[in-house]
Amino acid sequence: MIPNTKKTILNNGLKILTEELPFMRSVAMGILVGAGSGNETTKESGISHFIEHMSFKGTARRSAYQIAKELDAVGGKINAYTAKEQTMYYAMVLDKHIDTAIDVLCDILLNSIFEPKDMAMEKGVILEEIKMYEDTPDDLIHDFFAEKILHGHPIGKPTIGLRKTVKAINRQDILNYRKKWYSPKNTIVALAGAISQDTIDRLNNYLGSWSGRQPAPPSAPADIKGSLNLKKKKTEQVHLCLGVKGASQVDENRYPYSVLDNILGGSMSSRLFQEVREKRGLVYSIYSAASPFHNFGISYVYAGTSKESLKQVVDLILQQFSSIKKEGVGPEELSRSKENLKGSLVLGLESTASRMMWSARSEYYFGRVITIEEIFDKVDKVTQDDIIRLANKFFRDEYLTLAVIGDMQKLPIKEIHC
User: Fold this and answer.
1) Which protein family is it in (predicted)?
2) 52 is an active site residue
């Protein structure tokens, strides 16, 4: 799958990925910039996300209303997201309206004007977004955990930013940040769907003369050390993340680690879902997740429970860490996890948008588009010994970090071991 993705590099270094899917009636286009919250200084916290918002507030050619109206008028969708290491602007349209998507997205990328009056209004929007986020403890806990396990590393800071830093951002800050990070050699344009033969020529007309500096290297690896952390907040539940160091995006261990993570808490038949929810009824939500970045990774278990059950839930999670380290997993459990991962991957690539995003991220991290067949091959080769090896590599006391948000004065846990 995704065997027909073509890469074109313009003279200015901009990479264009195109996957022709002639049986589709739609096209998805995305512009990925290799800059996210992990690239920000402490003073800049939230600026990547703020730029993403402001890019829809008007260009030299279009007002914010015109940007929205042009996509609405052709039944299309336009959006963006900011992550730790990238920002992406994207649109989905019927194939006959691809010119509209190209024109609007390239206009946003190159010609956004960042009017101070619009910035002042959008700061209010983002400050309300921060308040909403702070009122959602099952979201807030993930950033609290990342902050503590990464000990001041930029990737550990919230993508949305902090109130004081968002309030302080001015137009010159935005222009300086864009000059540093928004450049053709740090940008990937990806398209998937019913693409015509002249798509590259049209993109070259818009973006071929764009210039900019050489991108900075990815952020340095984080210093990951374990700790126990409590944020007191009036909530009905106690929310926790318990995690460790994990595999990076480019680490060959990433694929066997994904199998391990899936066994631990990636599905309804996973160990933690069965042991903590189904057998004991201690939680409604519990799952494990891996967050691989360019030069390092973290992984964690999330759970929401009562104050009274907190210690028991933490103990049960640690027991599973220890069990996998010592005893590994059985052949049936291993096979089930592999097939679950492969099925989920294929089902997640059934739309032009998901295929476009896959291509862009793959190019960003690996310099090429990784095929599904390659991943299947790596997953199929994972052995029971691999699972034990990685559990012992990453499930270690020196990495164990517990972050808790809830209405309690102190943690009922003095130390944690696995």
Assistant:
1) Belongs to the peptidase M16 family.
2) yes
